[in-house]
Amino acid sequence: MRLAARRERPVPWLPGGRTADALLAGGSFAVLAAMALVSTHMGPPSRMPAYSWALLALTCGALYFRRAHPVAVGAVTLLGCAVYYPVTEPDGPVVLTFVVALYTAAAEGYLTAAIVLAGISAATTVAADRRDDVNHLADAAGFLLIGWFVAVVAIGGVVRNRRAYLREAEERARVAERGREAEARRRAIEERLRIARELHDVLGHNISLINVQATAALHGLRREPERAEDALTAIKQASKDTLREMRATLGVLRQVDEAAPVAPAPGLARLDELAKGIAAAGLKIRTEIEGEPRPLPADADLAAYRIVQEALTNVTRHSNATSALVRIRYGDDDVTVSVEDDGTPASAAPSADGTGIRGMRDRAEALGGTLDAAPDPDGGFKVRAHLPL
Length: 389
What we know:
A five-stranded mixed sheet has the order 1-2-3-5-4, with helices on one face. It has eleven helices and five strands, in the order H-H-H-H-H-H-H-H-H-E-H-E-E-H-E-E. By secondary structure, the chain is an alpha+beta fold. The protein has helices spanning 2-8, 18-42, 50-61, 70-87, 95-107, 111-132, 136-223, 225-250, 271-279, 298-318, 355-366; strands spanning 284-290, 323-330, 334-341, 370-375, 381-388. 65% of the residues lie in helices and 10% in strands. Helix 10 links the parallel strand 1 and strand 2 (323-330).
């Protein structure tokens, strides 16, 4: 993009486009006319005929259209020079108009046409020199002029290639910029999905516990006031946890300076705390650990915790189970978590394509793992996730 910006930055004192072409045409006529007048006064008294002035004005004026019609301008200036030199005495450097036209044709991409025009001019010049003068000095001047034609065409071709390179570089810069913008949008979408998944898990788990405890409190308010008090205490704690985790999850969206959260991030280290909260809803939780527990990468630790949390939430919401088994197996380069309950799924139990199960599967697959969720042949429901580290 820097290259494109440098190329497009205008020069304050340098005109461009049609204005520059008009200045070139007018300036060329003024300079050539002045040189013609000087030549007529320096030698024997003479006067340029009107048709010579007309040819001079034609060849110079054609330069105004050199960008729009480069090949036609090259042909007009070549024809004008071919007519001007034989009939005008003294002549002048009108051939410079043809040189400018040759350069423009080559620079605008008409390289073949420029070579043809230069070849015609060279052949005509050599033929005229050999017919009119056998002087070797005249032959050398003709070949020198031909060399100038070749050089001008070559320079125009180089300029054309340079412009093509600049355009390609500009296009590559635009493509790279679009790629960076697409990558930024993709990351933003992934971050939104991550936050939405976190909110779903946090709210789904804690609101389900609050609902269960509120139901228990209403039923036991008169019969067992002690249990109602315990249920209300659990509701208070669940709502507090909900608010805390929501603040932690939504904190990434705030662009103000805030104190860093002091609560530990969700992970398997908080599994006992999770089990205790579920147990308050009346579900007995057993935990089994296989292998040597160790710190896990943050993304795998969070995914394992959320999968267990969502699986236990589904047990309390969609099953009449009284107990659940949470098994964590630490492998050399993976960790496997599973949740099994002893109940029978209710009629409203989620299918394998349910939102909660789909969210758990997305978490596992995001790490390159797998998740299976299905009724256990021995009874109950089983969720098993394998997460590579």
